């Protein structure tokens, strides 16, 4: 969920190649919309991202009636991207609540987490930049934020497909059942 890193990779690659990548880019575009008002370099990157989104849609969705499989793939990708986005919003709300409970401001995280500037902290809280293990540990230990609220446990499509392929090869009915629940969720 390292959005800036993923954005940089995506812009360098020059194209969106999967439906999940498209849905994540769509969510990222929404996040960058707010930030681009204050930062011209983000505004420029957002413009490039928006062009990649338009290009993907033109290539993959303008060829007549989409197949049921294509629609199902899009629905799954949308669900994963929305779940990831909802996690980031909930994490942001929890961090802000804990800061307030402790009489702290967002800028106080600069000292606590040891990062260089306030905009980086804002990007960290908004899920644009990734939290390091150290960031997670400090927020957990000092502010009392549960680890489940700081670290996403959302599986990527590739992992879900891999698990689906190996679930019948397990010698554990309980594990096979749990994998089935994850894949079907």
Automatic annotation (TrEMBL):
One of its GO terms (molecular function) is DNA binding. InterPro entries: Cro/C1-type_HTH, Lambda_DNA-bd_dom_sf. This is XRE family transcriptional regulator. It comes from Pedobacter kyonggii.
């Amino acid at each position: 969920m390292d959005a800036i890193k993923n954005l940089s990779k995506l812009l360098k690659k020059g194209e969106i190649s999967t439906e999940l990548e498209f849905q994540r880019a769509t969510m990222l575009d929404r996040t960058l919309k707010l930030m681009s008002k204050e930062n011209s370099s983000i505004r420029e990157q957002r413009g490039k991202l928006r062009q990649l989104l338009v290009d993907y849609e033109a290539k993959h969705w303008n060829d007549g009636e989409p197949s049921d499989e294509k629609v199902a793939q899009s629905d799954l990708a949308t669900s994963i991207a929305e779940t990831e986005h909802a996690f980031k919003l909930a994490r942001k709300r929890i961090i802000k609540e804990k800061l307030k409970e402790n009489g702290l401001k967002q800028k106080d995280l600069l000292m606590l987490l040891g990062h260089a500037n306030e905009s980086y902290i804002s990007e960290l809280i908004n899920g644009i930049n990734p939290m390091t293990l150290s960031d997670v540990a400090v927020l957990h230990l000092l502010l009392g934020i549960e680890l489940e609220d700081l670290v996403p446990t959302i599986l990527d499509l590739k992992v879900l497909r891999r698990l689906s392929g190996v679930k019948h090869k397990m010698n554990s009915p309980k594990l096979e059942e749990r994998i089935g629940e994850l894949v079907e969720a």
